[in-house]
Design brief:
about 260 residues; alpha/beta; two-stranded antiparallel ribbon; 8 helices; about 60% helix; about 10% strand
């Protein structure tokens, strides 16, 4: 029996590695996407091994392998470039930028208790609002499964508990997605007298989400958007969500 070449053997070894990694992190909270990603990479490794095997016996197989490798390289370049912009948006410091309004995007609520993501957004929002008092602030988020109150109400309680003046807090309690966050917030701000097409609006969200939130805000008709990023406390979660965001941004650009 002919010995398997290293060009076939190495991708198969990586298949096992990524399958094991995916299985190992499958049940780690917040890491489901990384588990699926590992499975996807393992699948690509299998395809690579099969194409390498084919290329050893066929000129057509060799040609297909080169096209496949080129496509992978282009994909990696695209992913790296997109991640650069996503990370840059998530690390921007816009504290000193004057704004005419603020939108705080909701996240999950466990019963009446803000989730980790929402708590970090409240910390970032509270600090930002204390530096920018007197502007209208839309707290945007409806009520989903497992939530006993709306995300907007949970944010209102969290911010007032952190010492934020409730006078300018506006609750938007009907949205179920980021696109709806901006569509509904647009109406409320216009009713408040803010010209969203010319105003500079700060958007508070998780750091990894800032870039995509800006895309959706501009689609909703907002003019100048500045991000106020909230960081997660654990680096491994941050890496997971930043990686996932590249796929989410791509899906938004392609599918709308």
């Amino acid at each position: 029996m002919r010995r398997m070449s290293r060009y076939v053997r190495i991708p198969l070894i990586w298949t096992v590695v990524f399958m094991a990694a995916g299985a190992g992190i499958r049940f780690v909270p917040g890491m489901r996407f990384s588990s699926y990603l590992c499975a996807g990479i393992a699948g690509l490794c299998v395809v690579t091994a099969l194409l390498c095997l084919w290329s050893e016996h066929s000129h057509v197989g060799w040609l297909v392998l080169q096209i496949y490798r080129a496509a992978l390289i282009l994909g990696i370049i695209y992913f790296a470039g997109l991640e650069f912009f996503i990370i840059r948006a998530g690390e921007a410091d816009n504290t000193d930028t004057p704004v005419q309004a603020v939108i705080v995007l909701g996240a999950g609520v466990n019963g009446t208790t803000p989730s980790l993501a929402l708590s970090t957004r409240m910390d970032a929002a509270a600090d930002y609002l204390k530096a920018h008092p007197g502007v209208p602030v839309v707290l945007s988020g409806g009520q989903g499964p497992g939530e006993d109150i709306t995300e907007a109400q949970a944010m209102y309680t969290a911010l007032t508990d952190r010492g934020v003046d409730p006078e300018h807090l506006i609750l938007e309690e009907n949205s179920t997605s980021t696109a709806e966050n901006f569509a509904n917030s647009k109406v409320l701000l216009q009713d408040y007298g803010v010209d969203i097409s010319t105003a500079t609006v700060a958007v508070v969200s998780s750091d990894f989400h800032i870039f995509r939130a800006g895309m959706l805000a501009r689609r909703a008709g907002f003019g100048e958007i500045v991000g106020v990023p909230a960081e997660l406390p654990w680096r491994w979660l941050t890496v997971n969500y930043y990686t996932r965001e590249a796929f989410a941004v791509t899906a938004l650009a392609v599918l709308g």
